[in-house]
Structures are given as structure tokens and as C-alpha cells.
Amino acid sequence: MKLRALAAAALAALTLVAAPQAQAQTDPNYQWRTDPASKVLAGKPFADGVLHRVPGSWFDAQRANPAAKSAAARGRALLGAGAPIYVGMYGMCTVAAVGTDGSGRKVALTAGHCGNVGDPVVAADSFAAGPIGRIARKNGALDYAVVELGPRADLTASYNGTTIRSTGGATRTGDTLCKNGYATGVTCGMTWTADGVRNQSQVCAMAGDSGAPVYSGTRLVGMINGSSIPQFANLACSTPLQGPIHAPTVSTNIDTIIRDLNAAPGVGNGFRLAR
Q1: CB of 237 within 8 A of CB of 206?
Q2: 83 and 62 in contact (C-beta within 8 Å)?
Q3: Rounded to whole angstroms, how far apart are CA atoms 180 and 209?
Q4: What angle do CA 6, 238, 133 make, to 5 degrees?
Q5: Are 171 and 199 in contact (CB under 8 A)?
Q6: For 59, left (φ over 0), alpha (ψ -120 to 50), or beta?
Q7: What distance, in Å, lies between the first and last C-alpha atoms of the chain?
Q8: Rounded CA gap, 158 and 24, in Å?
Q9: pTM of the model
Q10: Closest to 244 (Cα-Cα) out of 198, 176, 190
Q11: Alpha-carbon span 264 to 258, nearest angstrom
Q12: Got the DSSP string for the chain?
């Protein structure tokens, strides 16, 4: 399943049903809901309200990162692993990792199906800063893309509770892995298969989570790509009430991605994590 395609379809059908708060003046999808159905589906029936950021997701979304909002007020953008982004015409995806390449360029990694080479990228939590990068390189087979970031982009190793200090290493059947995505936040699940290129796990993911970091502790091991059963969109993980009852999620091994980056010159070659 290409998660961005589902996000685009849901976005086209989106009807705003709640009065926006301050952030919605810049990000049109930052919507607070107070109706009982939204609160129950978010697993928070007694909350004053829940936040929706990705059409089709019933999770109580992560709030805009305070440091990223502060950066936007200065015309800058903050990005880290798990940061939400818009690609092209409002394609919703998530950053897997940020850092620099061998030529000193600031770069971010996300899923390849999130956009095409040349598409502008906006940091959703720093929406007011406008475009701060573009897709400079992608690999459709491995489903990853490299975003070349401009001088107004600031990088951090820790974002919304996820800290990435290293990359790579083997994952095995039975390992518990976690991810931090735009649509469903931080969720964890058991690994079903791991062949060194693709992993299948019970990590919750849906449209908007494409590109999200898959990690164990502070070690990045992969990037979210989509569902293992793309023809059954109704099996996507869209509410915490599902628990583990959803289609398994496919991710690409980060070692495989970095090897491919380093196999040819260009943006991203010699990638090093932000510290």
C-alpha cells in the first residue's frame, strides 16, 4: 500500500467540522475535535478535545513541536526523526532521519512514494516558514527519497519524544520495534519477518506515516513504507481501539537504504546523522 495515495484521497474528501485554533491559521489540517465520536475513537472519551492532523486518522495527534513553532516564528524550520512534512501538493509524510551528507548538505530521508524529484517540502510543525527543501533523489524500488534542505532548516537528533543516535544493525523475528509517524504517533509492535531488506511487523501505520522512523531504543533500523495487504485499506491502523488488530506494516531496512545512497554520487551520499 502506498500510504500517500490514501492520504491524498482522504484529504480531497475532508470537511472541516471544528473551529480551528491558532495553529490552523497556517496548517489547514490542524483540527481540534470535541464531538463524542472523535473522542471515543481516539480512546479518550473524557478528554476536553482531541487533535486531528491527518484525514482518516482517529488518533489524538501529536501537538506541533514547540521548538518547531518557535523556529517558524523566525522564518526557520526544525526537523528530526518523526517530524511531519508536506510534500508537493499537500502529500502528508514523515521524516525518518535528518543529517548531512559527505558534501555538507543538510538532508532528510523519507519514503520514495511521498513525491517526485523537484517537489517542494514543508515542515508541518513549522508551516509558516514555507518550503524549506525539495526532493533531490529517490529510489522507487527501495521506496526512499532524499530531501535536500535549505539554509533555513535546523536539525535535531530528538523530536517529539524520539531520539536517534545511531543507524543499522540486524532485526530478527520476534523483536519489538517502534515508530513515530504523522498520523498515528508513537506505536510499537512485534516483527514477523526480517530478510535484511524488508521487515514486516505489527507496528501500527496508515496514510501519513510513510517515511516514519522504525527504531529500537535510539537506534534507527528502518523506514515505514506501507501495508503488507495494500488491497484491503479497511485493515489499516486508524484508531487506537484496534490494538494489534490491523494489517502488518512493511518497512525498508536502513542499512540497505544507506548502502544504496553511498553507491552513487549525489545528494545524500555519505549520510551522517544529526547530533
Answers
A1: yes
A2: no
A3: 8
A4: 50
A5: yes
A6: beta
A7: 33
A8: 25
A9: 0.89
A10: 190
A11: 11
A12: --HHHHHHHHHHT----S---GGGGT-TT-EEE-SHHHHHHTT-TTSS-EEE-STT--S-PPPPPHHHHHHHHTT-EEE-TT-EEEETTTEEEE--EEEE-TT--EEEEEEGGG--TT-EEEEGGGGGG-EEEEEEEEETTTTEEEEEE-TTEEE-SEETTEE--EE-----TT-EEEEEETTTEEEEEEEEEE-SSEEEE-----TT-TT-EEEETTEEEEEEEEES-TT-GGGS--SGGGTT-S--EEEEEHHHHHHHHHTS-STTTT-EE--
Residue whose entry in the numeric block shows the C-alpha cell 552513487? 264
Cα–Cα distance for residue pair 50/175, rounded to 1 Å: 32
Q: Are 241 and 214 in contact (CB under 8 A)?
A: no
How many Cα atoms sit within 13 Å of 54 on the Cβ side?
A: 35
Give pLDDT tens digits along the chain (275 positions): 444 444 444 333 332 233 334 443 468 899 999 999 999 999 999 999 999 999 999 999 999 999 999 999 999 999 999 999 999 977 999 999 999 999 999 999 999 999 999 999 999 999 999 999 999 999 999 999 999 999 999 999 999 999 999 999 888 999 999 999 999 999 999 999 999 899 999 999 999 999 999 999 999 999 999 887 765 556 789 999 999 999 999 999 999 999 999 999 999 999 999 98
Instruction: Please identify which residue in the block is written with the cell numbers 491527518.
Output: 54
Residue 152 CA to residue 166 CA, distance in Å, equals 25
What are the two backbone dihedrals, phi and then psi, of residue 239, each rounded to the nearest 5 degrees? -145, 145
